[in-house]
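ok, trying the design again with the full structure, not the truncated one.
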């Protein structure tokens, strides 16, 4: 299943070569992780949370975008890193800049305590709604997005299912 999911995510990059325009940007905001199923309920806030955003238009009302996140924590000999990839399809509606987004996600967490290294992965499905507006009619846009991801359980790696709510504010630029 992991290989098929990675293959499907790779197919999302095909429109880049076909269309020739790329949008890149940075997002910041907060996320709330809740709804853990094992043990006591746990709520975690991340402020700020940050993503790089890469997108390509795939039609008049459709664009393919991916959020890319990287976190690294270190203390003494212990370290933890997390890479998150959230590709999605944005469907624009109206002329006001509103859109809805369907997305799939994958994250990989690695840890090292100086003597042993471990890694685990997790997949998720979600949706978001947002507003994207051009600044002064130019190639630079700002955006506000609220999203929900349901991270699925991966019992093989000891990762339990949970819900993630996020609110992001970002700025991006279209480049040819």
């Amino acid at each position: 299943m992991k290989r098929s999911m990675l293959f499907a995510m790779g197919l999302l990059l095909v429109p880049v070569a076909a269309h020739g325009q790329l949008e890149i940007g940075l997002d910041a905001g907060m996320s709330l992780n809740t709804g853990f199923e094992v043990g006591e309920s746990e709520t975690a806030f991340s402020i700020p949370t940050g993503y790089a955003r890469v997108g390509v238009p795939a039609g008049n009302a459709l664009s393919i975008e991916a959020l890319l996140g990287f976190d690294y924590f270190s203390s003494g000999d212990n370290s933890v890193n997390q890479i998150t990839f959230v590709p999605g399809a944005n469907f624009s509606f109206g002329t006001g800049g509103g859109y809805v987004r369907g997305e799939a996600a994958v994250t990989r967490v690695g840890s090292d305590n100086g003597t042993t290294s471990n890694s685990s992965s997790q997949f998720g499905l979600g949706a978001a709604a947002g507003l994207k507006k051009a600044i002064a009619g130019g190639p630079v846009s700002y955006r506000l997005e609220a999203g929900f991801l349901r991270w699925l359980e991966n019992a093989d790696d000891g990762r339990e299912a949970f819900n993630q709510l996020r609110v992001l504010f970002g700025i991006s630029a279209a480049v040819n």
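Keeping the full-length input from now on. Confidence is low (pLDDT under 50) at residues 15-19.
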